[in-house]
Amino acid sequence: MEDEELKKGEGLTQEFKRELPVTDRQFLKTVVAFANGMGGRIVFGVNNEDGQVVGVDDENRWRIQDRVTNMISDGCVPQIFPTYDWEEVEGKPIFIVNIPASFNCPYYLRKEGVEKGTYIRVDATTRRAEPEKIIELQLYGQHRTYDSIVERGVAPAPQEEIRVLCSTFNEYLNEEDRLVTVKQLVNWKLLEQKNDKYLPTVAFRLLVGSNFPFSGIQCARFEGRDRSVFIDRKVFDGPVHEQLEGSLRFVRQYLRLGSTIEGVRRKDKEELPVVALREAIANAIIHRNYLIPGMIQVSVFDNRLEISSPGALYGGLTKQQMLNGVSRLRNPLLAAAFRRMNIVEQWGTGVQRIFAACQKAGIKPPSYQLSGDSLCVCFPRKSNAVPSRLHAPANSGRSDSLLLQEKIVRVIRKNPQFSTKQIASALHITPSRADYHLRKMQQEKLIARDGSKKTGSWVIVK
Question: Terminus of the chain with fewer CB atoms < 10 Å: N or C?
C-alpha cells in the first residue's frame, strides 16, 4: 500500500487497527458491515487515532491468517471469504484483511442473530442496522426490490385506482393508438394478478397515492441561511408524479427571475434551471428508501436550495460512480413508470443532465453530500438572492392537497352536477388528479355522490 492510501484515513471502506485481533468483537462487526456494503479493508498495524504506522509482529504470517479466517468463519453468517495482503510501510509490516462486497445479505454476527447482529458502515463508523435497513438487505440478497413487492395483508387494488393509473399513463404517453390497460400494469409488474383480483405492489400504491406512509415531499422556505425561521412551508402528498409538480411549483415561486434582451424580445431567465430542479426532485423520488420513516425535504435558503432524501446510495454504489453516470436502482418499477411518463430519460443520465443544464445556464453545478442514511443535493444560490416574499402567505403551513380540496368544495357548491372532467377543467388540473382527490374526499366523508355518475350530483357532507 502506498503512503498516500493511508493518509486518506478511515472511511466508508477502510478501517485501522493498532493490534492484531485475538477475540476482537469490534473487528467482526466491521467485517460484517463491509460485507453488507461496498466491501472494504481492515488495516492492522496502523493507529486508528492518528493514522500513524506502528507495524505488527509478522513472524508467523500463515498462523495469523488462519486465525483470522477461523474467527470470520465461526463468527459471521453467511460465510464471508476474505483475502489477505502483507505490505511494508515506513519499514514496518502491516496486515490487510480485504472484505469483498457480497450478495447474500444480510450478513450478521452468529452469536447476536440477524436482528441485533447486522451491522452497516456509515461514513467511518460501524453501526447496528435499523430494522428497515435489514429488510432492504434481505430483499437485496433475494435480488428483489421493495417497490416490487406486494406487502402482506394489502387489499386488492380498487378498479377505480386501476382505471385512474391507466388514464394517467395515457395522458403522459400521448399515444392515441395505444391505450394502457390493466394488462400492461400486470406486465409491468405494478400489479400482481390473483384469480380475478389485482394486488398492488408498492410502486402501484406510490403512483396512485393510496395513503402510503411517509411518501410525501416537505417543502419549506426559510429566512436567511439556517432553519430557524419559516417563511412558508407545505407538504405535497398523493401520487408521486403530482408531488413532483407541486414541489416544483413551490420552489419556483421563491427563485429570482431575471431577463435578457434578445433582438427586440425580452427572455425571462430563472435563477436555477427548471430542468435541473425537476431532474433532481424526480431522482429523489425514484431513488429514496421508502422503508425509512421520513419524507423527502426540499428547503430553500437565501444562499442555497437543498433536496434531501432518505436512504444512502444503493447496492454498493459509490459517490464517484454516481457522478460518472453509473446507476443502481433502488426502485426500478417506479423509475420505469417515470420513464414511460417521460418524466425522466434514460437511466443513469440524471446527474449529467443536471450538470449540463447548470452549465448551459452559466451557474455552478450542485454538490452531492452523503450523511448517514441520507443524500442531499445542494444547489448554490447567489449571495444576493433574497426571498421573493417577505411574509408568509395566507395559506402557509397548509398542504397542497388541503388547498385543492377547498377549491373542489367551492366548485361543487356552485355546480353540484359537475362531472369529474368538468371539475378538472374548472380548476385547470388533469382529470386523474381531480379523480384522485374526489375519491379521497369521499373516503374521508367530506363529500358524497348522490345518484349515478352520469345523472347524479355531489353532496357536501361537512
Answer: C
